[in-house]
Structure of C1q domain-containing protein:
Amino acid sequence: MAPANGTYLFGATLLYKINASTSARMSGRLVLNGATEIRGSLGEMSATHVSLATAIWLQTMVPLTAGDTVELQGYFRVADGYFAADHTSFWGCKVG
C-alpha cells in the first residue's frame, strides 16, 4: 500500500519452472488496486522455455495516491507451469 502520494518505481522477476511441457507461455504484469493493469508493466516470454532459466523482468513507474495498492500477477497460456517461488521477486520504492 502506498504510504503517500507520489511517483513510485516498481519491479518484479518471475522465473519459469516446468510442469509437464516447455510449450507454456509465461506472462506477468503489475496491477493497480486489484483491477487495472499498470501501463508498461505487461511482459511475456513466447520462446521455448528452459526450466529454472527462462525469466521475465518487469519494471515501470506509476503515480500513486496514498492507499493505492500494486500487486504482481503471473500466468501461463498454451500449457501450465510454475513460478519458482524462491526466485520470484517484487519490489517498489517512492522516487518522487
The radius of gyration is 14 Å. DSSP finds no helices and eight strands in the chain. The mean pLDDT is 94.
